[in-house]
């Protein structure tokens, strides 16, 4: 009985054009569900059910793999400054998965709520890219875990001091130390603005624009990894950190592969393009897109963990207090402060677009209610 409660599901010809997804013909919920109806629809086979579960269940899988770090030998307390960037990364991923799954579940409350849900979705994706950048900056930065030669002592005899990874070109040094995090921040804001715009303008090529827009933060935030892949490891052959960090490259390549496949699903709308109506409930491209994006996040987590382990193998290198690393250590303002500033900016953008959406779709609410009453 629980699964049958709620309103009947509709065909694409019975819902407002705004709600129609390409090549999905059935399984639509009418856009005037109550909150209770929306929550219960997670257990009904609608065309959003798979979209919800493919980002909701991963929250638990990600958390399971994430907390492992705190049990490692040499790991400081979970609340130590060393882990500030990792917690920011966790918050970025957690908010992304939760916002995405809830957006798919609640978007049939009204056309305005539907717009707001997707604005929040884009905002959390952008915030996630900055969370990743903070983790990359403190754990994969070309100088992360590299002791300053002027202060080195026996503890650091393992560390390479002559490889390309140890001597950075001035332009790169300036970019990583001065511009990397601000660039990630600005690109994230550009992404939110562009994606929110695709819901009100540029509709024809919206999937291509959204995919390309998220390529930019990937390219910017991955620069420390590109640098590490193109130069020698900062750890010497005798260092136990070297073997810990060697798996970083393969995790990164897999992370890229999953991102590429997810982009292909998002743009191509396969498999439902080949058989409209056949994949309405299960197996349509957005569900595969969710699965692939989660697998890319999981490989990114493994990559970050590999580098965290490499640093932890030299307890004296664990970033401040009293670090001998060349990097300034994470502080509350350089991690949580950056995220707070970003989130405040994103919320302001979402509020502005939501206000605009309310002006466009608000008047349609009464009309939809009347249509729905006629159906009952
Ligand atoms: Zn989605």
Automatic annotation (TrEMBL):
<comment type="similarity">
    <text>Belongs to the ADIPOR family.</text>
</comment>
<keyword id="KW-0862">Zinc</keyword>
<dbReference type="InterPro" id="IPR004254">
    <property type="entry name" value="AdipoR/HlyIII-related"/>
</dbReference>
<feature type="binding site">
    <location>
        <position position="104"/>
    </location>
    <ligand>
        <name>Zn(2+)</name>
    </ligand>
</feature>
<feature type="transmembrane region" description="Helical">
    <location>
        <begin position="208"/>
        <end position="230"/>
    </location>
</feature>
<dbReference type="GO" id="GO:0016020">
    <property type="term" value="C:membrane"/>
</dbReference>
<feature type="binding site">
    <location>
        <position position="286"/>
    </location>
    <ligand>
        <name>Zn(2+)</name>
    </ligand>
</feature>
<keyword id="KW-1133">Transmembrane helix</keyword>
<feature type="transmembrane region" description="Helical">
    <location>
        <begin position="336"/>
        <end position="355"/>
    </location>
</feature>
<protein>
    <recommendedName>
        <fullName>Progestin and adipoQ receptor family member 9</fullName>
    </recommendedName>
</protein>
<feature type="transmembrane region" description="Helical">
    <location>
        <begin position="87"/>
        <end position="106"/>
    </location>
</feature>
<feature type="transmembrane region" description="Helical">
    <location>
        <begin position="118"/>
        <end position="139"/>
    </location>
</feature>
<dbReference type="GO" id="GO:0038023">
    <property type="term" value="F:signaling receptor activity"/>
</dbReference>
<dbReference type="GO" id="GO:0007306">
    <property type="term" value="P:egg chorion assembly"/>
</dbReference>
<keyword id="KW-0812">Transmembrane</keyword>
<feature type="transmembrane region" description="Helical">
    <location>
        <begin position="50"/>
        <end position="67"/>
    </location>
</feature>
<dbReference type="GO" id="GO:0046872">
    <property type="term" value="F:metal ion binding"/>
</dbReference>
<dbReference type="Pfam" id="PF03006">
    <property type="entry name" value="HlyIII"/>
</dbReference>
<feature type="binding site">
    <location>
        <position position="290"/>
    </location>
    <ligand>
        <name>Zn(2+)</name>
    </ligand>
</feature>
<keyword id="KW-0472">Membrane</keyword>
<feature type="transmembrane region" description="Helical">
    <location>
        <begin position="178"/>
        <end position="196"/>
    </location>
</feature>
<keyword id="KW-0479">Metal-binding</keyword>
């Amino acid at each position: 009985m629980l699964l049958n409660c709620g309103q009947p599901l509709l065909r694409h010809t019975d819902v407002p054009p705004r709600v129609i997804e390409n090549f999905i013909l059935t399984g639509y919920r009418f856009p005037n569900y109550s909150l209770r109806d929306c929550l219960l629809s997670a257990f009904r086979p609608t065309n959003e059910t798979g979209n919800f579960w493919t980002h909701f269940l991963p929250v638990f899988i990600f958390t399971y793999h994430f907390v492992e770090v705190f049990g490692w030998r040499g790991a400081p307390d979970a609340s130590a400054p060393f882990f500030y960037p990792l917690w920011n990364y966790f918050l970025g991923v957690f908010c992304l998965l939760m916002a995405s799954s809830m957006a798919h579940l609640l978007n049939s409350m009204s056309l305005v709520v539907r717009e707001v849900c997707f604005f929040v979705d884009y905002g959390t994706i952008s915030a996630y890219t900055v969370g990743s950048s903070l983790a990359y900056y403190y754990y994969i930065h070309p100088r992360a875990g590299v002791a300053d030669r002027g202060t080195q002592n026996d503890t650091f005899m393992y560390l390479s001091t002559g490889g390309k990874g140890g001597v950075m070109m001035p332009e790169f040094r300036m970019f990583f130390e001065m511009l990397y995090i601000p660039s990630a921040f600005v690109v994230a804001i550009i992404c939110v603005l562009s994606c929110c715009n695709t819901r009100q303008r540029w509709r024809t090529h919206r999937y291509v624009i959204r995919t390309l827009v998220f390529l930019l933060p990937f390219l910017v935030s991955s620069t420390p990894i590109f640098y590490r892949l193109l130069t020698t490891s900062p750890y010497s052959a005798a260092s136990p950190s070297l073997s810990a960090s060697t798996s970083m490259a393969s995790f990164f390549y897999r992370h890229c592969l999953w991102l590429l496949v997810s982009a292909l699903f998002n743009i191509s709308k396969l498999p439902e393009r080949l058989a409209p109506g056949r994949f309405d409930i299960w197996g349509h491209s957005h569900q595969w897109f969710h699965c692939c994006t989660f697998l890319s996040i999981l490989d990114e987590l493994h990559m970050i963990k590999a580098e965290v382990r490499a640093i932890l193998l030299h307890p004296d290198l664990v970033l401040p207090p009293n670090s001998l690393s060349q990097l300034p250590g994470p502080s509350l303002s350089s991690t949580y402060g950056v995220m707070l500033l970003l989130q405040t900016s994103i919320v302001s953008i979402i509020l502005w677009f939501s206000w605009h959406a309310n002006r466009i779709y608000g008047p349609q609410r009464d009309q939809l209610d009347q249509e729905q009453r006629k159906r009952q």
